[in-house]
Amino acid sequence: MADEASPEHPLAISVEINPSSRENDCLPETCPLSPALVDHENEIVTAENQREHKLCAVCGVNNARFCTNCRQISYCGKEHQTQHWKAHKANCFPVKVVDRSSLCESVKPQGRAASHVLVATRDIKQAEVFFQESTILSAPGPWDSDAIEVAKGRPICVSCCEIIRGYCDFDDDDDDESTIRCSKCFWPVCNFFCESSKRHSEYECKILSANNVSSMVLNQMPDYECILVLRALGLKENDPERWMKLLNLEAPIDTCMDAETSLLFLNNAVKFVREKCGLKQYSDGLIRQVASICYVNAFCNEDHPGENGYIYKIATYIGDVSSKVSHSCVANSEWAVIPSEEDHIRFRALVPIKAGDLITTVYNYKKLCHKSTICRQPFLSDHYFFSCSCERCLDPSELNTFLSAVKCPSEKCDGYLLPIEPNKSNSVWTCNSSTCDMIETNTWVEEITESITRKFEPFPYKDPMRGLAKQMTETKRHIVGLKKLVDRYSGSHVHPNHYLLLNAEWKIMQNCYYYIMNVKHWSPDVIDLIVSIGKKHLEIFDKLSPGVSRRRGYILYFLQSGLLESIRHGTASLTKLHKKKPVDPEKQESLKKAYFDMMKMRAESVKIFSFKGGIKNSMEEELLNFSSPDQPFLSCLKFLERILDQSIDA
Ligand SMILES: C[S@@+](CC[C@H](N)C(=O)[O-])C[C@H]1O[C@@H](n2cnc3c(N)ncnc32)[C@H](O)[C@@H]1O
């Protein structure tokens, strides 16, 4: 039996795996989960022992066969596997690569014929880190308009892909320059550690320096993107195992040659590798094949420029099993990279995932998470060559959030225009009011959104965590300016939840947060703003990024900080009063409730941030540090304890 799907296992019923392809469908014998993530406590024979000797986990007999789901445990036959399933179920490897054709229609991603998907082999709990692997490769990029905006002319370290902070003028011929350039190839690096990292020094640095491939003109960034392809080709000689894994990934070379952006990427790669780096041993065809693999399988920009207010890396990662994960705009998992020489990519369940469910994630948070369907679809079709048909993409109201809804131009109508076919770029838009028959073209809607976008341009992305926190006048100007614009367009031109307004509100909320953190005497309006925006966004993102998503984590964190300040502020006057007479029981009750609501939010955001907690330089790590009992928090606690006449555990 051991070569059958496990008994009671839902995959045995829902997914028919073609026996001839079974071996390929199985995960590699080395379970990609790190041992720390696998709990073998309940196994009868220790996994290591039985794996090595292929002993049956029940009777210990030799030469047993592996459980096909996890290949971490063996059985002599069906009887013992069935008997042991109860104990093994919780540890059985949680995901499996399956042939797309073997999936039933209800879970199969629609569109271009991609061959593989990742499916849960058992129930996965919410917040469980269910899968982790070292990446096949990672490299700087993609170098697109967002990266240009965020980098603001600063170089990206060719090794760790971080924006080199504190750097002013890369082309200046001063001392600073030598400290941020690799001493051999002269490409930008953070420090000696990055210069000597295996990833940079072993292959590409030699090629770049031998051929004098310079990166003098920083914004000639297509060369930066080509480092990914150069590194990938380097695997052929230096790491055949990884090279084979890479070649086995989907390579949509013909589709890439047919589309403008991808064709440019492929052609740049050929030019860079053959002409600039002089590597004539790689044929145009092979370079294009590798470039197309890189193009379609990459996970990009782990931290999100602009959206979460923090960008550290402009990086691209390619994994083996992780590259089989499908995209969904309402995903059931989120990914993060733990930086190291091998950059581990890990996945966590945002919501409970049932055995047999497709594992989905958002391929690029920045481009997809907070945008409307009319923005997401072109990105997905340009970069991944498919039309997403997730529940959010097929619903004109985007799960009742009205993220793309535009005010109906008919004078007496209160309705909003929504696209009839939201995942088609040329869809007609109709009014959602039952008494209005207004119809508009996609071009008309685009003109409205473009004109509003232009109005927000004077308030570009800033990095509030660092620079702006010290420039509070500028922060205030942004808060006031953005709020004015939101009020102007909300309800009159677009729906109050329109994604352009949400993006502006997101910036307002962040700026308010940093304002109250850095300014002693703030006006209560700032707190009201954080709290009202936070509550509104929580409601929307409960639908769009449900569960333990980072977006919800940030919202909860900002919201609790506003609530904490509002409890402190609203009760400050009571301190004096309390000295004279006891606090009115009703007030006491409402304070207690506000306090426990705030604590709940704080705890939930900390739980969400723990996914990336410990990852150096992540925004989550920074906020986790903030969320340890800090001064305002402790003084608020003390005050509440006094007036509630009881002690509260922090
Ligand atoms: C990173 S790869 C995923 C693995 C790929 N399916 C395979 O066979 O190896 C990205 C490709 O998967 C396909 N894909 C991912 N999510 C999809 C979805 N929701 N609907 C249709 N196709 C999807 C697209 O063809 C996309 O180019």
Q: Which percent range describes the beta-strand content?
A: 5-15%
Largest sheet: 4 strands, antiparallel
The quaternary state of the protein chains shown equals single chain
Q: Strands across the major sheet, in which order?
A: 13-14-15-16
Q: State the share of residues found in helices, binned by percent.
A: 40-55%
The counted number of beta strands is 16
In total, the number of domains comes to: 4
| Ends distance | 52 Å
Average pLDDT metric: 79
Rg over alpha carbons: 27 Å
What are the low-pLDDT stretches, counting only 5+ consecutive residues below 50?
1-49, 167-179, 304-309
| Category from helices, strands and their pairing | alpha+beta
Could you tell me which ligands this complex binds, including any ions or cofactors? S-adenosylmethionine
**Global outline:** globular
Determine the number of helices (DSSP H or I, runs of at least 4 residues).
Answer: 25
Protein name: Protein msta, isoform B
GO molecular function: N-methyltransferase activity; protein methyltransferase activity; S-adenosylmethionine-dependent methyltransferase activity; zinc ion binding
Pfam families: SET, zf-MYND
Domain MYND-type: 56-92
